[in-house]
Amino acid sequence: MLKVTIDNILIEVEEGTTILQAARRIGGKVVPPAMCYYSSLKGTGGKCRTCLVKVAKTSAKDPRPMARLVASCSTPVQDGMVVENITSQEVKEARKGIVEFLLINHPLDCPVCDQAGECDLQDLSYGFGLEGTRFEEEKREFSVIDIGRYIKLHMNRCILCYRCVYTADQLTGGRVHGVLYRSDVSEIGTFISNSVENDFSGNMIDVCPVGALTDLTFRFRSRVWFLRPVDVHRECSRCTGKAVAWMFGSEIYRITGRKDAFGEVTDFICNECRFEKKEVSNWIIEGPRRINRQSVISANHYEKIKKQSIIKPIEGITMNPEEIS
Fold first, then answer.
1. Residue 133, pLDDT score
2. Structural domain ending residue among the three candidates 197, 215, 233
């Protein structure tokens, strides 16, 4: 086991663990943000640079700091390594610059974007974004297009994280889309106007950290904070059948994959479950989904109790025992 210290917290991890993976074991604010890395997809990481951290001590054998900030998602830990994330002002300044670059071509259309309320870029810009912009040139503009029966592509919002490309590559047998061209003219597109029609294409929507890929069956229907997410499952021959149903009253507005604490899908689901099973009778409801109380999705609902429990308090809220009679 290797010992690594992240923001003054010591943890032991196995050899080959990256700094980001080690930080996720600690949890909380110690975890660097990640817009391109996805633990279940091979080859992801190292593209968005939002997870940069400072290595103040390379290892017990080499106490020198690394010359520059490194991507925590692709840098393996070493025994005795000391890492600074939120405790480093240099990291915070670098992250502000990265957010500014990500927003250079991103439109200010949060009020009409279906991803609003569950957008990683929104959270990142809220924490590290600037009040204004120094960008004076014209933004890149693309037409909004359908790249399949169920998916609409808003290339204006894309940050080229490559997640959707890796998802199509590793979950399906015939990827027909990818990153076209190079440098500042790069874009996501299909090969010779092909249509994305594979059985697991809907997972591209779930892995997208922004609103570049949207669900045509849910488009403009509701805001996520007006819906009630519940865990559901069904018998399916293509996937696990484990999903989340977003309900308004007794009606299912959309079906998505289940995500963990870091916003990554734990079970990829097929298009039949996602797009074609929108009746409550299609599913077995397990119960309400637990959501971080800091999330906008939890606004105005979700666990209604008169008194909080000391043993099992609402997530994100601490209670003084004297406040409970």
1. 80
2. 215
Question: Nearest Cα to 92, choosing from 69, 73, 74, 76?
Answer: 69
Query: Angle formed by the axes of helices 89-102 and 120-128, to 10°?
Result: 130
Looking at residues 120-136, what average pLDDT do you find? 86
Which residues span the domain enclosing 27?
2-101
My answer on whether 265 and 184 are in the same domain is no
State both tokens at 87. 């405790």
Q: What is the pairing mode between strands 242-248 and 228-233?
A: antiparallel
For the record, the structure tokens of 158 come out as 């894309």
Show which of 215, 242, 263 is a domain's final residue: 215
For residue 274, what is the DSSP state? Answer: I
pTM over 0.90: no
pLDDT confidence tier of residue 296, bands split at 50, 70 and 90:
confident
Check whether 307 has a pLDDT greater than 60.
no
Q: For the chain, what percentages of helix, strand and coil (3-state, to nearest 5) are there? A: 25, 20, 55
